[in-house]
Amino acid sequence: MGNKNELLQKIEEGYGKFSKGQKKLADFIREYYDKAAFLTAAKMGEEVGVSESTVVRFATALGYNGYPEFQKALGELVRTKLNSIQRMEVTYGRISQGEILASVLQSDIEKIKMTMESIDHSVFELAVDTILNAKSIYIIGIRSCAPLASFLGFYLNLICPDVKLVNTNSSSEIFEQIIRVGEQDVVIGISFPRYSMRTLKALEFASNRKAKVITLTDSVHSPMTIYSSCNLIARSDMASIVDSLVAPLSVVNALVVALCMKKQEEVITTLETLEQIWDEYQVYSKDELNMVGDKVELTMKMKTGEDDE
Amino acid sequence: MGNKNELLQKIEEGYGKFSKGQKKLADFIREYYDKAAFLTAAKMGEEVGVSESTVVRFATALGYNGYPEFQKALGELVRTKLNSIQRMEVTYGRISQGEILASVLQSDIEKIKMTMESIDHSVFELAVDTILNAKSIYIIGIRSCAPLASFLGFYLNLICPDVKLVNTNSSSEIFEQIIRVGEQDVVIGISFPRYSMRTLKALEFASNRKAKVITLTDSVHSPMTIYSSCNLIARSDMASIVDSLVAPLSVVNALVVALCMKKQEEVITTLETLEQIWDEYQVYSKDELNMVGDKVELTMKMKTGEDDE
Amino acid sequence: MGNKNELLQKIEEGYGKFSKGQKKLADFIREYYDKAAFLTAAKMGEEVGVSESTVVRFATALGYNGYPEFQKALGELVRTKLNSIQRMEVTYGRISQGEILASVLQSDIEKIKMTMESIDHSVFELAVDTILNAKSIYIIGIRSCAPLASFLGFYLNLICPDVKLVNTNSSSEIFEQIIRVGEQDVVIGISFPRYSMRTLKALEFASNRKAKVITLTDSVHSPMTIYSSCNLIARSDMASIVDSLVAPLSVVNALVVALCMKKQEEVITTLETLEQIWDEYQVYSKDELNMVGDKVELTMKMKTGEDDE
Amino acid sequence: MGNKNELLQKIEEGYGKFSKGQKKLADFIREYYDKAAFLTAAKMGEEVGVSESTVVRFATALGYNGYPEFQKALGELVRTKLNSIQRMEVTYGRISQGEILASVLQSDIEKIKMTMESIDHSVFELAVDTILNAKSIYIIGIRSCAPLASFLGFYLNLICPDVKLVNTNSSSEIFEQIIRVGEQDVVIGISFPRYSMRTLKALEFASNRKAKVITLTDSVHSPMTIYSSCNLIARSDMASIVDSLVAPLSVVNALVVALCMKKQEEVITTLETLEQIWDEYQVYSKDELNMVGDKVELTMKMKTGEDDE
């Protein structure tokens, strides 16, 4: 690929000659460049387990005039998604499709494991309590996080009385939908790299309005944490053009289960009411394959090939 | 809970006195009742590893007049979501919120592992090739599967020329959106228990129109497999009102990565074009936090607490 | 067209020989068959200005065994949209495209005029007051009425504190969104022929929950009026596959203006707050061409053809 | 109202002393300030029917240092929606709710009449032919124009093979949806004051890609016309916070009717296919009240009050 990122190329070419500390830094940058771009030299050293001066010398060794220029190169690496293609090439370029499948699933398992190890249980409990005590619950997630927000919104609506899924649609903008947010409300912001500036600004607004802010994001270094008093950290993965949101989805599942357990009676009432409504009012039959008879019939058809023409 | 399902209650009460084979059956039903409701006595025996007559005797032991009545009770168990509350109670009722978190995440890891073990690599490769060779790609997923469909649609649109996310909205119905589907097209149907009848019918239509049908569903027993020539199996989880779709999402990730690797040059071109368009035409700045400077500044603010009032 | 509706054909063939009263009936049926299908013989006579027995004899003259069979034929006429193609043929078949434009616009003017003449001012005032006094405002309109509902929802949200646009989307159904409707709320249902059964059922539910129900529909014969205590009547038009909703949109405009005048101070506050938010928080510039300078520059470009390559 | 716009206030205060030509200018500005902000002094004179020097002197009479400063004040008048509240006050402030209803409907009739008088028939025919000959048809309308775009999209989809409604949603941006637009395609842009910059930029992109561009907008002065080769002009109305889009909707109706007449056979085939699909595949009954029996029954219930409890 002609448009290979310069920094990645330098790291690749020099890798053989790197010291042990430099190799650690190189690995860290390849894996977490999105985070690396945030860090001061001291902080990066701390994360990787080398000294600040090792970091600075690493920058010079790569041909940069000091850490700031190196950091600028890191920024360029982050800037375009094109780089993710390069990273994909590195990760998946030489393996078969079958191996890609196994490799992606294994990587997603790792992300959930890392999430289990790093997530703060007291923060999770705080999130549950904050949601339970809120008057209105706003959920914001856009771009690749929109499906997560929509999924969470669907289930919270069965549990809590006033849930508002904030979406960007053809008619209205985010701020038109959160303009009435207040002290008694909670705003749940979901954002993973490449972080959404619109989500961040909505959280800033909510925070200024004294609303509670809960975030679901990928690290303590995430800008989403600035306005949040309750950060749920789940590992995402960027080794592809697709941002893997498997671990965040798992945390969403846990949130729904925990809320359900706290509001069991209300949820049962809601579900019972919905069942009654279906029976009494719905024109449509429920869009679900529930009747054993139907199912068996369908399965039989499949087995005997009745449907074949 | 007063409205405890009768069948579950019978199983619970009798469990201590069950034979080894009956315990296997009881466990199977508690875990996979949604599937159990489909099965003939012979097939259930096969799945669990007991004889058909053990299954029939188990039905009688529980107090039913033979297998058909027992199967009807299974159907009732499936029918309402209320039962998932009962199952949640069983699974999560006696543990703390922190343990719920760990338990859900661990369960999601297991589902991905089971998916890795059971998914057929040649089917995955067939899915990739079918998508690459299609003229138009239709993606259908509704209810809790809508976020998965939307996520897949977003990324496929960057890779393939004609991707149509079929959604049910206030204006149009599914069939109005797939009315022109033909032989050269592929329809990807995503459905997990409680299976969607509308998705099933759309796949039937696509199949009659000789379109290729790919399904992402939870088992070979899923009714979705009836009209599909290419079944991607991923484990979902119903031990909650929330259907965990973590493993299916991981398979979607793998699909996107594999397609990307096959169409690298096209994806690079698409992404480069999008970058150029942003630069040339967009009124808005990109909704992404890309500039190192900004990030550092934000991070600094956070560290020094400048934003605190 | 081979599939010409039998009843229309009979009317066309016999028209020359009809009595004056029969011609009136024939014209009424061609224009308002959708309504005609509702009416008893007595009622149809009343609407057209002929006696009940004239109506019954008309049915026999057309070759039907009495009024019930004739009414069944009317039902068939209504049943499929195909008939609207036939009606289009009748209305627009022999005129040029330019004349189609003039004819459609003229017809829309007539519908607004008829709406002005027939709409009940005290009902309009009741609608305004009911909306102003409601706790939550739900708006339901699906199929071709979805754009009207969305338009009304967008503006009401700027005026009233808790507006919920009920939509059918891939994730949730109507009843999941209105499950918490109560006595203090108002539900605004918008439905025109071909009336939506789902909207009707939602209004029935709202009515049983003692919520206020306001309807925007096309006549006092509309089934939507069953559950409504406040019916805004606006003329729609079905002389095409497209249901002209111009007059209903005009009534929506009037509703927004009247509400705005009643809540001027609140609307000003909302708009000012939105302006401030844009200035303080928005990453994006507003998506509106506001700056005179920009406009002039753009206009200049246009005039001088600077943009031409 | 304390925040009364300065320019409007000056006009109001001075009105009594204005010359006949100045009164014409004052009326024009109050009615069409959104357009006035675009115009040079010469052009404004031409529109109003006074000389350029009368316009310049009017600016001075109001206390501005010449026309450029006056134009800047016009820009401020346009800038915020707050002004529309003031204009509403002027138009509707002293009349009853009943009169508001009549006044809004009458104003909408006028807009359609003005549209009839000013729309160019050959442009309408060009639009119809361009749409019929296009490979793919993209429809763009956002903010208050989103319902119009959605309405047009719904019906075009029944007439033409490849219709893409471009919407801004939580997942994808406009440019991601039009990235493959090409020479054989048509892009229909709908935008009324306050014009959308995003729609404009999308049209610019389409134009650079040599796609045909059709616009539906409010005047030849609209910036939307810059990139369009086929401008459908329909009068909108801004005398409220709500932009009246009644006349544009009427033009959309005419477009659908004209296209239907040209593709009668295809539309019949599509509708027949949809009917068949309903019969063969739909789980749901059609969401329409079609059966005479049902209707009569419902109507009867209504009349006899059977539903009352």
Task: Throw out a few tags for this protein.
3 domains, Arc Repressor Mutant, subunit A, 14 helices, elongated, alpha/beta, 309 residues, Rossmann fold, five-stranded parallel sheet, homotetramer, 7% strand, disordered C terminus
List the helices and strands and how they pair.
The structure is a homotetramer of 309-residue chains.
Chain A: H1 6-14, H2 20-36, H3 41-48, H4 52-61, H5 67-79, H6 82-92, H7 97-118, H8 121-133, E1 137-140, H9 146-159, E2 163-166, H10 174-178, E3 186-190, H11 197-208, E4 212-217, E5 230-233, H12 246-262, H13 264-281, H14 292-304
Parallel strand pairs in A: 1-2, 1-3, 3-4, 4-5
Helix pairs in contact in A: 2-5, 3-4, 7-12, 8-12, 9-12
Q: In a nutshell, what does this entry contain?
A:
Four copies of one chain form a homotetramer. Chain A contains 14 helices and five strands.
